[in-house]
Amino acid sequence: MIDFTAPYVLIEGTYMVPLHSPLETIADVDRSGVRIAVARGSAYDLHLTRTLKNAALVCYATASLAVPQFVADGLEAAAGVRQPLLLFAKTHPDVRVMDGRFQLIEEAMGIPRGRSIAMPYLRAFVEEMKATGFVAQALERSSQPDATVAPPAGN
Question: Which pLDDT band, with edges at 50, 70 and 90, does 63 fall under?
């Protein structure tokens, strides 16, 4: 068992579709006959495997394969993290990234449950790193400008 802090980063899982796709909203994607490219074992693959009712997942070994193969294989959608999908779409005018999200990934820190002395320190550390701008600067340095710093705990 693990105890977690509040999240320090929020990452959106969303879809990319062909430019002229009739799929307009996130909810539109879960239809019979819709095939969605995903990276096998990714957080969004696991989430969609549990939540989709009608659409079918087409798994590829990695996200760097799934996204271009969605185009090459003529699939109806690709699922992924918003930032890389937006980067791909910038150089491929025949696709668009949908508004909205099907998943919000909350990145947090964790330690083994029962370390009651350490947990308050870790929680305070995460909040300080968000408040001082450290997390935002780290996202910028690592070319993750579209990931969002999580709000202060309790908000």
Answer: confident
Instruction: State the alpha helices, DSSP H only, in 3-142.
Output: 43-51, 63-72, 82-90, 118-131, 134-141
**3 in Cβ contact with 122 (< 8 Å):** no
Greater confidence (83 vs 80) lies with 80
Sequence spans of domains, the chain? 2-8+106-149, 12-104
Per-residue pLDDT averaged across 51-71, rounded?
94
Q: What CATH homologous superfamily does 12-104 map to?
A: Periplasmic binding protein-like II (3.40.190.10)
- CA torsion, ordered 29, 35, 40, 44, to nearest 10 deg: 0
- DSSP summary character for residue 150: P
Q: Per residue in 115-138, is it b (16+ CB within 10 Å) or e — as a string?
A: eeeebeebbeebbebbeeeebbee
Written as six digits, the tokens of 11 are 């990452």
